[in-house]
Amino acid sequence: MGRCGKTVWVGFVLSSDNGVEAVEVILARRMVLLGIPLSAVVVAISAVGWGSSGLISSLIGSVFVLLNLSLSAFAIARASKVSTVAAMAVAMSSFIFDLLFLTVFVVIAHGYSFMNIRVFAFSLIIVHIVVTAFAARGVSGRVAYSGLFPSKKGRK
């Protein structure tokens, strides 16, 4: 299944005109679909534990994670059509951009009363780790048990 043709972005779906969907986008969509209910739980816990500032901070953190996953997947899928080197360059650039954005956001927002930086960090870390762990578990399971074994015809 090669990826060729014109790329179309529709919500969380990135596909080419030949109907082949980018693997990065499939993974990102699964991660976002898992991240939505997880984010709801994290936001609810934060609202109960820290009130309205916890709710707002956790909601901002969870939305950032979900947007980060989908936008990074979109960028990597576009770059992978060029080359694997371009995909890695975009992945690293995306990571650096995320760190810079988070740093600027925390420096600006830490003084506001509606923002609880600890809850924001808690929601970022929990949602990112859990969603990434489930995605990695699924990918490694598919690779390990994909049915791509050598044939027994040549063995004695």
Overview of this protein structure:
By secondary structure, the protein is mainly alpha-helical. The chain has one domain (22-140). Helices cover 72% and strands 5% of the residues. It contains three helices and two strands; from the N terminus they run ββααα. The chain has helices at 23-80, 84-109, 117-144, and strands spanning 7-10, 13-16. It has a two-stranded antiparallel ribbon. Strand 1 (7-10) and strand 2 form a beta hairpin. Helix 1 (23-80) crosses helix 2 and helix 1 packs across helix 3. The protein is flat, with a radius of gyration of 19 Å.
Q: How much strand? A: 5-15%
pLDDT < 50 stretches: 1-17
Task: Tell me the Rg in angstroms.
Answer: 19 Å
Give the domain tally. 1
Strand order of the largest sheet: 1-2
- N-to-C CA distance: 33 Å
Return the average pLDDT rounded to an integer.
81
User: How would a textbook summarize the main sheet?
Assistant: 2 strands, antiparallel
Sequence of secondary-structure elements: EEHHH
**Number of extended strands:** 2
Structural class: mainly alpha
Specify the overall morphology: flat
How many helices does DSSP assign?
A: 3
Helix content: over 70%
